[in-house]
Amino acid sequence: MAKPYPIVPVAWVDGISQLNASLTAYQMAVEGILRRFATEGAPYNFESVIAGLDNLFTPVLEGYQDIHSQIDKAREMRLVGIASIADPEEEHANR
């Protein structure tokens, strides 16, 4: 049985590409920091680093939460559709 998915205007999810790029940059920064901490030790107060990382991540998280909220509203308004992939053999038989 197919599951209904929300149909939303593209403008609602336009920012997802930028959010994904920001999330990738954040991941690379965290990996670099952790690698440096592992090899050279922590040059800063660890709690300050965590707070700084949280400040960098918060806008990305809020962006994803905004998109999720908009999609939930579409679901509540019953703007849903069911996507399916046609069977090529069945399509050929129907011609």
Explain the overall architecture.
The chain has 95 residues and is mainly α. Helix content is 71%, strand content 4%. The chain is built from four helices and two strands. The chain has helices at 10-13, 16-40, 46-76, 88-94, and strands spanning 5-6, 80-81. It has a two-stranded antiparallel sheet with strand order 1-2. Helix 2 runs antiparallel to helix 3 (46-76). The relative contact order is 0.19.
Overall pLDDT score: 84
- Please report the total strand number as a whole number: 2
Distance between the termini: 25 Å
| Proportion of residues in extended strands | under 5%
What is the helical fraction, as a range of percent?
A: over 70%
Strand order of the largest sheet: 1-2
Number of helices: 4
Largest sheet: 2 strands, antiparallel
Backbone shape? elongated
Given helix and strand content, the structural type is mainly alpha
Radius of gyration: 21 Å
N-to-C SSE string, H for helix and E for strand:
EHHHEH
Unreliable stretches (pLDDT < 50, length at least 5) are: none
